[in-house]
Amino acid sequence: MKKLQLLLMAATVMVANGAVGAETPRAGGVLKFAVSAEPPNYDCHANTSFAFIHPVRPHYNTLIQFDTAKYPAIKGDLAESWNVSKDGLTYTFKLRKGVKFHDGSNLTSQDVKATYERLRDAPGGVRSVRQATYADIAAIETPDPLTVVFKLKKQNASMLTNFASPWDCIYSAAKLKQDPRFPERNIMGTGPFVFVEHVAGSHWTGRKFDGYFEKGKPYLNGFLAIFIGGAPMVTALSAGEVVAEFRGHSPADRDRIMKALGDRAVVQETPWVCSLVVTFNTKKKPFDDARVRRALSLAIDRWSGAQALSKVALVRHVGGILRPGYELAASEKELLTYPGFAKDINASRAEARKLLQEAGQPNLTFTLTNRNVAMPYTPVGVFLIDQWRQIGLNVKHEQLETRLYLAAQQRDNPTFDAALDFNCDFMDEPNLQLQKYLSHDRAAINYAQQTDRVLDGLFDKQSGELDKKKRYAILRDFEKRALEQAYTIPTIWWHRIIVHHKHMKGWYNTPSHYVGQDLANVWLDQ
Amino acid sequence: MSTAAAPTITYKVPKRRHPVLQFMVQQPLGAGGLVVIVVMIVCALFAPWVAPYDPLTVNYSAMLAAPSTEHWLGTDSFGRDVLSRIIYGSRTALAIGFIASFWGSTVGAVIGVVSAYFGGKTDMVIQRIMDVLLSFPIIVLAITVVAVLGKNIVLGVDINLIIAIGLPMVPKVARVVRSSALAIRELPYVDAARAAGYSHARIIFRHIAPNVVAPYLIMITAFVAQAILAEASLSFLGLGVTEPTPSWGLMLSGADAGFYQQAPWMIVFPGVAISLAVFAFNMFGDSLRDWLDPKIKL
């Protein structure tokens, strides 16, 4: 065990010193990596899961992107430069020359405009889960083929970094004009890899795009994403069948892979902008009653749970609606004042029982809808069911395959009782993390279905506030109301552990498993 | 003249043993299987009294504890007692095993009898459908059905899982029962029933079906083992029972799979339980066949 710990330390130190990134990239080879779930469709704008971004992102570009080696710094992608007006209401992007789509057509500002029009105001039949993110855009102008200008209705503290969202794949305006739903079933971008095939239940492949705008990139000849999860994935990684899995491993899996690979492995760890939240279907009784929802939150011993689960799962940190440790997140002292976060769990559970009694639901029975991705959904699901059993509730557990799990929450009139949903983002930013808590008519990713104009108002207020102290105070008001109403409640925040083979270079772990996945800079040294 | 008295012939009527005792003496392996099955049934029925702990109670202070006097078979990654989960898991195994086997065998038997009775084109069409179903390996067909139907929990039991496990049994039973029914169809009493004007349904269910009960019962017993194995396999693949329900197959995978090197007891004991149950049902089924079949007795 000591040997393993030393190995872990050595590998972590090696990454921290940047030793991995200091070598000269070598061209060639096919990167084989594992993805533990499959994308439900091919549309970036409609998706929220790593299962989508890991195989699909290498086919697309965005306007700007995160520099993963210096995260959260941003750098250009399709935009070579940009500027923001002094009043913060105009964002101008200059596009690179000579960028081509995989079908050979040229990228112009019209393509960027069509993409963002689709994102902020999806036409009928098209699903954009990021409508709220771009609601502040008043107009998109294209003065010339290489310039695109975004005019905002009001200031937005996160707008520039929003443009680095890995979900904002730039689509061809011509294809969207033919069929706005074209991206749902087709892959056609400007990214470093051309789509080759997707064999459901098996794999996804891409080959190097010879017409890629960055000369010499991508370094790889192609990639092969193999859909494999759980113990078989760990075995495949340990045996060298795949060189990485980019979502994250549990501590036990990390130790097992490290033991198998020895000095051929590299481990990279970081806190994660990702948490599991419980979403209550507020359109369904008794979850339309705030007392019931609050009672269920009060019953959860997050502090003990985080400590115990961190030994067996990839969750570790107790936090509110923003990631603990982030500058705008609540301090532990503030957190302790919110319902469900007090350390005296017996008092909290007594209050929970009282609330359920008042609501006429002392022996409530319901189903927790969960995802059939083992880590960390299963351990957290089991943990929650145990916590609720301790106040006398009977909770059934259904674990659905990713497509059905998402459909259960996203359909127009959902029938689920409570769902273990994920709130993962590509960066720490209240405008992103708070969307789960906004009214459903403003944020499609809020599956609780509630309408709460107080929360909407506080969201707008903080979003336009550029003074961090004032924004912090508004965020506390938002957080207090969100946790008291408990439409959606945070459970435990994640901790990202990545173990990959040493010969994979140019990839950096960040607090988000969504960014840095275009694979343009990744290379193999053998 | 004297007449000799007729010799008295005395017949010694052999003392008949109780059938269960007779079975146990004649089929010791089957008897062993029966004992294991009875123990399983007792555990399933009286689990709350037999199990030392609540199988769902999470105890984070006892996570991954090795077998000890406190936890005879150790604990899992949630600190749950492995022995208690195995005992409660026998409920899942037996419930799904018996129900799936019963429905699969019953439907198969009815199809087999109907196919044999009508013969001709009806028989040909039914048998080709059975051929198609038989062409799929059991687990592949079950996975397909589970994937297509999803989950449908009624009274705590996943009905679709039971359908998925029972479906591959239908053609097998249909084949066996059809071959028995084909012989019975030609017997004079069936002709007599036809001549008397009885309906097809009456002839099938009153006159033919009772005579194929023996192979039907044997098939049910044999398929319980297959059903238990199928449930364990599907749960292992994440398509069967879900956490935190105690299930032997789920204990081999689920959230615990990552710890099998650190805590091997988490998978060894459920594995032993599955093997023992399957072995017991197979032994019992084989012995029951031998015991009921007069040809084998001769």
Low-pLDDT regions of chain B = none
What are the secondary-structure elements of chain B, in order, as H or E?
A: HHHHHHEEHHHHHHHH
Low-confidence stretches of chain A: 1-21
For CATH, the homologous superfamily of chain B is named as: MetI-like
Helix content of chain A: 25-40%
Radius of gyration of chain B: 25 Å
> How would you sum up the global shape of chain A?
globular
Q: How many extended strands of chain B?
A: 2
The largest inter-chain interface, given as chain pair and residues per side, is:
A-B, 33 and 27 residues
Please identify the top-level CATH class of chain B: Mainly Alpha
Shape of chain B: flat
Percent strand of chain A: 15-25%
- Kindly report the name of the CATH homologous superfamily of the largest domain in chain A: Dipeptide-binding Protein, Domain 3
Largest sheet of chain B, order of strands side by side? 1-2
Q: Kindly report the CATH topology of the largest domain in chain A.
A: Dipeptide-binding Protein, domain 3
Structural class by sheet pairing and helices of chain A: alpha+beta
Q: What's the short story on this structure?
A:
The complex is a heterodimer of chains A (526) and B (298). With 526 residues, chain A is an alpha+beta fold.
Provide the descriptors you would attach to this structure in a database record.
heterodimer, A: alpha+beta, Dipeptide-binding Protein, domain 1, Dipeptide-binding Protein, domain 3, six-stranded mixed β-sheet, five-stranded mixed β-sheet, 19 strands, 31% helix, B: 298 residues, mainly alpha, MetI-like fold, 14 helices
